[in-house]
Design brief:
The structure holds 2 protein chains of 2 kinds. By secondary structure, chain A is α/β, with parallel strands linked by helices. Chain A is built from 11 helices and 10 strands. In chain A, helix 1 packs across helix 2. Chain A starts with a helix and ends in a 10-residue tail after the last helix. Helix content of chain B is about 35%, strand content about 30%. Chain B is built from 13 helices and 19 strands. In chain B, strands 1, 2, 8, 9, 10, 11, 17 and 18 form an 8-stranded mixed β-sheet that branches. In chain B, strands 6-5-13-14-15-12-16-19 form an 8-stranded mixed β-sheet, sandwiched between helices. Chain B has a 3-stranded antiparallel β-sheet with strand order 3-7-4. Chain B starts with a helix and ends in a 14-residue tail after the last helix. Classes of the chains: A alpha/beta, B alpha+beta. The interface between A and B is medium-sized, with 30 and 29 residues.
Amino acid sequence: MLAALWLHAGFASAEKPTLILGGPPWPPYLDEDQIHRGLATEIVESAFNKAGYPVQIKILPWPRLLRAAEFKEVDVMIGLWWTLEREEVFVFSSPYYVNVIGFAAPTESTFKPARLSDLTNARIGVRQGARFWSPFDFSTSLNKITVNTTESALNMTAVGRLDLTVEDVRILHNLINHDDRLSEHLKILPLPLVYRPLHMGVRRNLDNAETIVADFNAALAELLQSGWVATIYRRYGIAESPLDILTRTPPSMADE
Amino acid sequence: MTDKASSQLSDAPDYDVIIVGGGMVGAAIAAALKNTSLKTAVIERKLPAPFNPDETPDLRVSAINFASEQFLTQIGAWEHALRMRAHPYQRLAVWEKLGNPLGERLSSVVNKTEFDSRQVGHSHLGHIVENRVIQLALLRVVEQAENVTLISGRRIHAINFRASSPEVMLDDKTLLRGRLIVGADGGSSLVREQAQLGLLSDAYEQHALVVSVAIAGEPQNITWQAFRPNGPLAFLPLCAIDGVAYASLVWYDQPAKLKALQQLSQDEFIRALRKEFPRQLPELRQVLGKGSFPLVKRHAQHYVAQGVALAGDAAHTINPLAGQGVNLGFQDAAALAEVIQQAAERGLDIGDLQTLRQYERLRRGENLKMMTLMDGFYYAFSNNLAPVKLARNLGLGLAGLLGPAKRKVIAYAMGLNGAQTERPLTR
């Protein structure tokens, strides 16, 4: 309660528009079943509260979400990885998390991809509409098989219909650890594909989009400084500090 | 070159504009502000070595398009660059390297297109110039400007944007206060970091290997790029020195491949270049130098905040595919100099956020457009599917045949598209 009061005390909320925040189901980052609707939702909602913006939240499947943004029914995308095409549509906030994108493979797999070209012969399950990293997304020499959900891809990988499932590693761990059959048959490969900072994005055609992002960034900086973001991280089992996470630059396939 | 600064350092002088970074873009902003009422300082840790006409060309070169050439002329730097050396090119060719017999047969018909400046009534499309020559030319203008002080040989210790006027502290504890701090300090900008302007970034899979070579025959008047799935190969012509013509080659590929190439002996490396580059590559006489760098795209989340503005690579790093990076930087320089000068003339605060937002509005969209275009171009050519290849090659071939479309492409290559040429450039 105190925390909520403190969050609201940061800025006067008068005359600030109500923002419609949207995101796809993407546990544990966006999750309608969680009390705070996921790590990403909670951080973004906290920062907007701190900045004095009332918000409503819509969790919609990705294709519907994009349409909703196009028809101005959603103002803010809760979690976005930056691409140039997306920057034309959304004003990006400062990052509030960094996703580690990696692969799940069958337990017995000896596959050890170290660079993108090592993936050429693998059947890779990719969640519909996902954009992970441009060289991966645009590559036509990779055998990427679109599936409706990451769970479907993992199930197919567990029974040998796919060689790999690509996704955020925390999501992979969550899904695998909560299913005995998957945990018996799947493992996470050690080298990630790439690290992607996670941003909030305000649609560019919303009035005062730049100001809204600037307000959000100022509030986010305060939440980082005060330890509130670290508290949220810990609630989702993340022991690393936000500073460590936001500045991490480990080896990945993007590097030599 | 540093005399004007050294006598003032201990006095903690007050400036209107403090430019951090005296590279091509930072020096261009300073040069564009010459002879204005704005007291300006440029801080550059290491000044370039003086030009020696007998020296072979540097490794780092830029393709200066026609619009940048106009801007450099207006601010008085181009004549200095020409007096050192700059090599014009009239033609620009793009094609795809096809590795099968069918491709070889098709190649002369559909997979190449060439643009010629004479088709739009210009003597040349642009110049290939060594970065050091451009920087020296600009610094020569800066040295002659009464209102500009060049501070070199010192590092930035800290930048404080919380003071009533932004402050820059040098490593000798000299404190410089300005109304506006300009970050022209490159891709790893300290100003951007200290001002918390934020950065959006992503890596490409490929790296680029730049090679400086001596070639047989006359200096070339064509620059070309050959596309292959592993990444493009580029040829940039340079001038002749003592009867020997030079050129710069760029090989985009996997980092591991480029690392292996760099470990080859000179003869082995030349053989590898001959094997990989298309037959249009002139005979190679000697490799003078080589160096590789990773390809990244970066875009500052904000170009400006109260008392601070970013320009050039500090604001955006683009895929170097078409050599547009420094040209975008010069457009930033022209726009920023114009915005702050107009504000000063109207008696407005040049460091005010509302003033600086005009600059961001002028440049952000234009830069994003070019970044997206280069990115799309890069990925369109980074795949191996035969039907896609054929379609692309037909597209390239058609672009070569269509008059108005071709003229548009040439205008784009020359930087004569978009708003920047309609807006009067500063001085």
